[in-house]
Amino acid sequence: MSMSAAPEPQPSQLPDLIKIGSVASDTAINLQTDILDPVIFSEREARFVLDNKGILHSNSRITFSTDGLALTDETGRAFFPAGVGVHSLIQRAALRVGTKTICEIEDYNHFAAYETTFLPPDAIKEREGVMSGRMMTIAPTLTGRGHPYQNASNSASLTESLTEAKSISLDNGTSVTLSDVNASYWRPIKQSVVPDASRVVFDYQKESNKPTYSVLLADLFPFLKTNQLPLFMMSEQVSIHLTFTDRKSDATSERISITEGATLAKDAALVRGDCQMIADYIFYPQDLMEQYRQANANMSFTYVDYQFVKRTVSADQFSAGLIQNVGGAGRIVNKVFVAAQQTSDGENSLLNNYIAEGPAISGTSTGSVKNNLKYNDNFLYPIDVSNDARHYHNVFQTEGRVPYISRDLYRGEGQLTIDNASKDKPGASFEKYSADGDLRQKFFYTAFRLNKGERVNSRGIELYDTRTTMGASSTLRVWLQVMRVASLKDGVIMMAYA
Predict the structure, then answer these.
(1) Could you count the other beta carbons within 10 Å of the beta carbon of residue 43?
(2) What are the DSSP calls for 154-214, one per residue?
(3) Which end of the chain has fewer beta carbons closer than 10 Å to its terminal beta carbon, N or C?
(4) DSSP of 133-164, one letter per residue?
(5) Are strands 276-283 and 429-430 parallel, antiparallel or unpaired?
(6) Residue 341: burial class (beta carbons within 10 Å; 0-12, 13-18, 19+)
(7) Is 474:312 a contact under the CB 8 Å cutoff?
(8) Nearest CA to 124 among 87, 82, 79, 174?
């Protein structure tokens, strides 16, 4: 009896290997990991070149560390900004095939601050604090002890109330200190001294201990969260280009933060040997990959990229009503999100400069923000949005994800971050930075979802933004998510806007 060969599967029966989640769970998979050194490296940029093999796993990582010399004394600690962690090192990220740029994000460190607001607190506290140095987990803080210890042997006494929590603060999982965090905070309690409760970073998070953190490729290039790159089908060189945040020549930094009251010796410098890419390549059975290559010799897929607009806006311009063209002409734009950075405290703040702020807050008012978008000769909303709760809701609607930030952190409303003298004693700070000064209204992002699927006409998109009243000039940053199409034919990839 003759045996006939099994029929070749039809193209419609082949799984989409580049679409995450489309491959059956019982498919044989081989994973190969390579440690790649950058082909170009300096304090300003780095470039990695990938091998054209397998399928690049979107959870591949790039690692970084610094030289540990930012502080030269024991008056405090240096650490990566709480909101972005090691992402603060990257100013621009670009993914290129040959000489063509597939995806590029400008001011990536500020982009990462926006993305951090959507990370669940448990993921930040248990994973990101170790993997990327982010620490933006907010928790109630118990009311501080308002009187000194009577004797030094009273070490079992509590520094805080057992029942009252009248404020919130950053909580990375450490216990509150019992003495001044600028000194030897681990020493026994001092007699007749009122405790100044504050949390500090873990030892492994201190810049002086040279921690090695990493960044996901899917964070650098968000389209990789749903697609993977079929490197085995590409004949051109695939590379990742990173432009680093400027290393300051004086004792200032946009890369790290330091304990309040400490003095920065010099800006953090990258360590060449720890800047590496951990590239994971996925291999399916050879016959399956070959059949997929033949069936998709001429393939195309859509993905998202970002356009960026940045300018300085004075307080008077915001008060009079800013009308800013943010581009997007001839493009299909899915969403727009906006941030205005007013203060530039740099290393002398918990979040460094990676913040989004609103109007100045007084004892009776948080000011007002009214905004809208206009495109294709129509406004997105028939009435300008002025309600702060609606601003927050629009961020949720735009992203389809809940921002894990309270209204205190969003618009400065509520009483949970205020250092109120009527309290017994404010709750614990973090590295001596109070929630009132360093967390309140530092996450005021506004977002717009363009849900009609229309192509923007030649006039582009206009942002109407009135803020009464900003305390000073601000740096306005606007990102537009646009649709692009990539086509892969005979190993050569071409990109175009959808």
Answers:
(1) 13
(2) -TTS-SB-SS---EEEE--SPPPPSS-TTS-TTSPPPTT-----EE---GGG-GGG---EE
(3) N
(4) -----EEEEPPBP-S--SSTT-TTS-SB-SS-
(5) unpaired
(6) middle
(7) yes
(8) 82
User: H/E element holding 49?
Assistant: strand 45-50
129 close to 213: Cβ distance less than 8 angstroms? no
Hey, what are 207's tokens?
């810049």
| Residue 92 in tokens | 């621009």
Cβ(482)–Cβ(303) below 8 Å: no
| H or E, element range at 109 | helix 108-116
Full pLDDT tens readout for the chain, 498 residues: 445 444 555 555 567 777 776 676 667 889 999 999 999 999 999 999 999 999 999 999 999 999 999 988 777 899 999 999 999 999 999 999 999 999 999 999 999 999 999 999 999 999 999 999 999 999 887 665 545 544 444 444 445 555 567 788 898 988 877 667 766 666 666 666 666 678 899 999 999 999 999 999 999 999 998 889 999 999 999 999 999 999 998 889 999 999 998 999 999 999 999 999 999 999 988 988 898 888 888 888 899 999 999 999 999 999 999 999 999 999 999 999 999 999 888 999 999 999 999 999 887 888 999 999 999 999 999 999 999 999 999 999 999 999 999 999 999 988 788 754 444 455 678 998 988 889 999 999 999 999 888 999 999 999 999 999 998 999 999 999 999 999 999 889 999 998
If you ran DSSP here, which 8-state letter would residue 455 be given?
B
DSSP assignment letter at 490: T
Exposed/middle/buried for residue 278 (C-beta within 10 Å: 0-12, 13-18, 19+): middle
Sign of the Cα pseudo-torsion (324, 361, 115, 390, in order): negative
* Element at 218 (helix H, strand E): helix 217-220
Picking from 107, 9, 21, the residue whose alpha carbon sits closest to that of residue 58 is 21
Is the preceding peptide bond at 469 cis, omega within 30 degrees of 0? yes
Decide if 431 contacts 201 (C-beta within 8 A). yes
Using an 8 Å Cβ cutoff, are 231 and 56 in contact?
Answer: yes
